[in-house]
Amino acid sequence: MNDSLPQHRGFFITFEGPDGSGKTTQIRRAADWLRSRDVEPVLLRQPGGTPLGEKIRGILLDSRAQDPVSPLAELALMFGDRAQSIHEIIQPALNEGRVILCDRYTDSSEAYQGAGRGLGAERVLAVHRAICNDLQPDLTILLLPDVEKALERAQRRNQRHVQQTGTDENRFEAEGEAFYRRVHAGYAAIAAREPQRVALIGPGTGDDGIEAIASRIREIIAERLHAHLRGGLSV
């Protein structure tokens, strides 16, 4: 961060949405835009982002793993990764006044394990309060395209990932459309419950193309960062 930025608590931005929603692309574009305005963001993903988290990611996402993971074990592993990420990256960055761009956070657990696996939102939120000390993002960008389009994109992306890396992170995509409709409904419920935190970018905006979505995200972030960065950021 340059000297013009404030020396108080940083700003925690999460990007959420089902697999195939375009989160990774939009995080990269948001990071590039922040850098062009002399703000170097902290980037991380969940699960992953720390040495321990990457090991947990392998367990959770590899569709070729031989041992099945129960829904409650899945939830516990997700929050183990999250606790380590908060301890190692998120809280120190907030203490330093940094801007954080995080690919997934507790909303993902509420949507995937709470709604998708049927564990329920209240159980997930109770674990969040206990394990994460109820640390909430300052802003969540929720990309929520149509289920069919998201699944199609996710499958294409995973095929490319396998070809490029030899690893398969397709375990959730393999659950099928019924699972993803529950996940979609879970995300929609979060957006309805927390409109002040969650900026919903739904199917109408999602059909406008990558750059149109990126432009909308820049506007949202600039507006919300205005109180944190002197004079705000122009888009």
Number of helices: 9
Number of strands: 5
Q: What is the CATH architecture assignment?
A: 3-Layer(aba) Sandwich
Provide the number of structural domains: 1
Mean pLDDT score, rounded? 87
Strand content: 5-15%
**Given the helix and strand composition, which structural class is it?**
alpha/beta
CATH superfamily: P-loop containing nucleotide triphosphate hydrolases
Q: Notable features of this structure?
A:
Rossmann fold, alpha/beta, 10% strand, 5-stranded parallel β-sheet, 9 helices, single chain, 235 residues
Description:
The chain has a 5-stranded parallel beta sheet, sandwiched between helices. It has a single domain (11-225), classed as P-loop containing nucleotide triphosphate hydrolases (Rossmann fold). α1 crosses α9 (210-225), α3 packs across α5 (121-131) and α4 packs antiparallel against α5 (121-131). It has helices at 23-36, 51-61, 71-95, 106-116, 121-131, 147-165, 177-193, 203-206, 210-225, and strands spanning 11-16, 42-45, 99-103, 139-143, 198-201. Mean pLDDT is 87; it is low at 1-6. It has 235 residues and is of the alpha/beta class. It is built from 9 helices and 5 strands, in the order βαβααβααβααβαα. The longest helix has 25 residues, at 71-95. Helix content is 54%, strand content 10%.
